[in-house]
Amino acid sequence: MEECCSTKPKKEHQHHEGHDHDHPHETGDQSVFSMFLPAIISFGLLLIGIALDHFIKADWFTGWIRPVWYFIAYIPVGVPVLKEAFESIKNGDVFSEFFLMGIATVGAFAIGEYPEGVAVMLFYSVGEVFQAMAVTRAKSNIRSLLDQRPDEVTVLKNGKPQIIKSEKVNIGDVIQLKSGEKLGLDGELLSETASFNTSALTGESKPDTKTKGETVLAGMINLNTVSEIKVTAAYKDSKLSKILELVQNATAQKAPTELFIRKFAKIYTPIVVFLAIGITFLPYLFVEEYDFRAWLYRALVFLVISCPCALVISIPLGYFGGIGAGSRNGILFKGSNFLDVLANIQHVVMDKTGTLTEGVFKVQEVHFDDEFNRDEILKFVNALESKSSHPVATAIYQYAGKVDHSILLENVEEIAGHGLKAAINGKKLLVGNFKLMDKFDIKYDVQPENGVNTLIAVAYDKKFVGYLKIADSIKADAQLTINTLKSLGVKTTMLSGDKSSVVKHVADTLGIQNAYGDLLPEDKVNKVKEIKAKNQTVAFVGDGVNDAPVVALSDVGIAMGGLGSDATIETADVVIQDDMPVKIPMAINIGKQTRKIVWQNIMLAFTIKAAVLILGAGGLATMWEAVFADVGVALLAILNAVRIQRMKF
After folding, report:
1. Cα–Cα distance for residue pair 51/70, rounded to 1 Å
2. What is the rounded distance in angstroms from the CA atom of residue 25 to the CA atom of residue 371?
3. Which helix (H) or strand (E) element contains residue 20?
4. H-helix or E-strand spanning residue 347
5. pLDDT per position as a tens digit, 527-583
6. Is 330 helix (H, G, I), strand (E, B) or coil?
7. Checking DSSP bridges between strand 193-197 and strand 160-165, what pairing results, if any?
8. d(CA 115, CA 54)
9. Which residues are identified as catalytic?
10. Are strands 362-368 and 556-560 parallel, antiparallel or unpaired?
11. pLDDT value, residue 621
12. More exposed terminus of the chain, fewer Cβ within 10 Å: N or C?
């Protein structure tokens, strides 16, 4: 994140992309008092100096003693900034805000305006501390995720518990997780059942009960008895690690407004410096009674006013606040640019299963022809579906029971948009939709287009066996999602590979304007292309894996169920962690509010600075007005930017 300057020397400069400031105190290494200490010392000395100048009028406070006193008052707040200016120049960034404040305050000393020189740097430094505190607050929602991974875990070695570092645990090791402990790595539950608090990952504190064989993730907290988990992913590859990496890199993707301000500051600052030089010397050619000291003072005032800190800090802070607000609500933005895109979204295209419906299918009925052994075919189907991650596979597993691994499957193949095929005992087994039956010329006497349930067709040895009737349910907040999107003026379309009658039923129930079923992945791409051809900004919401081509084509890809797969986190632009579709309009609203705040700050800074710059050039503004135009405006902009962190969406 690009931040304005600090009153403390930086530990490190990064100049590969603009001017990036790393505040030591942002990491919590300093107390608030120590952050303000240099300013407190300077303020105390400045007050004593002003009192000696105007109230006490001590005889000894004259000659060389007066400038030395003010110079000592200047050191605590001035030296760190002058050092920053020197470092910036050394790294090729001559016209930084440090340089502006440095020459303005040193110039004030040069013309004998000692109190004003100290005061300008003092208020500037206080402003920087407040800015650093605001940035720290903006980052706190995100940094709190870093505390979700325990450093150590208890591993069972030969049946005996051993405490070792999380990063040293191997795949296949068994972790013993006591009640109240936090899981350090992703794994598979070996215990029969266990309840977990998943708020670290989803923002939802509601307990999630897992059964034997189900996946449990790093960051989950065990709520009941001692559980055993077999590790399935290395520490660095856990879902939580990927989420953390995503959030920590979020600010690398800059919004266009942010990039513009960065480029603008690089051009604006040198122009201001040359204008200040012009204000100092050009009047000599046009004014009869030219007073160098008076015009230099005006130029110094001009420099203080023109410092771009209000823009340089408040705009990235606004975007970072938006990312933080999203993170607090279980929405992960991969960059501030996606906040801008979401603010302009005109059309949301949604997948059905797992987005608007629970994606938790249940087998309602099984209709197999009597000539087949029902139990045997179910075992075959269960074994084949175990090769798929589709929700249908889970439904069949829950209905049929444990997979019989003695069944030898050969030539297993997943046919996109159709289903699965394999060979068992030299005979072909087909499990999928009725398009799969058509593809392999399997004759059937069912009308699959009728009804609102999903039918899973089964064929074995080139004969139609029958079908499983599977039902899904609409998510509780799906209706609110569609209503909210409509209130935001956003059009909605639902695309699904499920049969059209099921899709139409869900669309009619929710009031979705356009819905299309029986779609292959390439059909979804074509539908999105049609929408984009109408010059509409499109967000696609899906699982981020099967729909990767559509996600890539859309202006912003939103993944539902970010805990479902690594590919989701890697391919989507925005990840909704808790599967709640109502977070879609929430993400759009966060984008709109962020953009609103950013543009409020831009207008505030430009309007006030322009007015005071004109007054300063005309000699009608002093250093005190300059301080308000710089530090005052920066603080107002920061206070406005942090508002987004307090908003409820």
Report:
1. 12
2. 76
3. strand 20-21
4. strand 347-351
5. 999 998 988 899 999 865 566 678 778 899 888 765 545 555 666 788 887 778 999
6. coil
7. unpaired
8. 12
9. 351
10. unpaired
11. 76
12. C
For 115, phi and psi rounded to 5 degrees? Answer: -60, -40
CB neighbours of residue 412 within 10 Å? 14
In whole angstroms, how large is the CA radius of gyration of the chain? 32
Q: How many CB atoms lie within 10 A of CB 142?
A: 20
Alpha helix segments (H runs only) across 471-630? 478-487, 500-510, 521-532, 548-553, 566-571, 583-617, 623-627
DSSP assignment of 298-324 equals HHHHHHHHH-THHHHHHHHHHHHHHHH
Non-local (6+) Cβ contacts of 31 within 8 A are none
For residues 558 and 496, give the distance between their C-alpha atoms in angstroms, rounded to a whole number. 16
Q: Which two tokens stand for residue 264?
A: 């603008």
Whole-number pLDDT of residue 288:
83
Task: Report the C-alpha gap between 210 and 213 in whole angstroms.
Answer: 8
CA pair distance 432, 396, nearest whole angstrom: 12
Token pair in block for residue 519: 């779609």
Q: Find tokens 């207008």 and name the residue.
A: 603
Report pLDDT for 200.
60
Query: Mutual orientation of helices 309-328 and 633-641 as an angle, nearest 10°?
Result: 10
Side chain identity at residue 108, one-letter code? A
Other CB atoms within 10 Å distance of the CB of residue 416: 10
* DSSP assigned state of 450: S
Overall pTM > 0.90: no
CA distance 115 to 620: 19
347-351 and 491-495: which strand pairing?
A: parallel
- CA torsion angle 465 469 470 472 (round to 10): 150
124: left (phi over 0), alpha (psi -120 to 50) or beta: alpha
Nearest Cα to Cα of residue 418 among 444, 457, 451: 457
Give the Å distances, CA to CA, from 621 to 40, 85, 299, 624, 629: 27, 26, 11, 8, 10
User: How far is Cα 131 from Cα 122, in angstroms, rounded to an integer?
Assistant: 14
| Positions in the chain whose pLDDT score sits under 50 | 1-29, 145-146, 564
- Closest of 308, 303, 306 to residue 280, by C-alpha: 303
Structure tokens at 589: 């609203």
Q: Which residues contact 411 (CB under 8 A, 6 or more apart)?
A: 421, 422, 423
> What is the Cα–Cα distance from 292 to 313, expressed in whole angstroms?
34
DSSP 538: E
Tell me phi and psi for residue 196, to 5 degrees: -130, 145
- Which residues make Cβ contacts (< 8 Å) with residue 246, sequence separation at least 6? 332, 334, 569, 575
**Cα-Cα-Cα-Cα dihedral sign, residues 524, 525, 527, 528:** positive
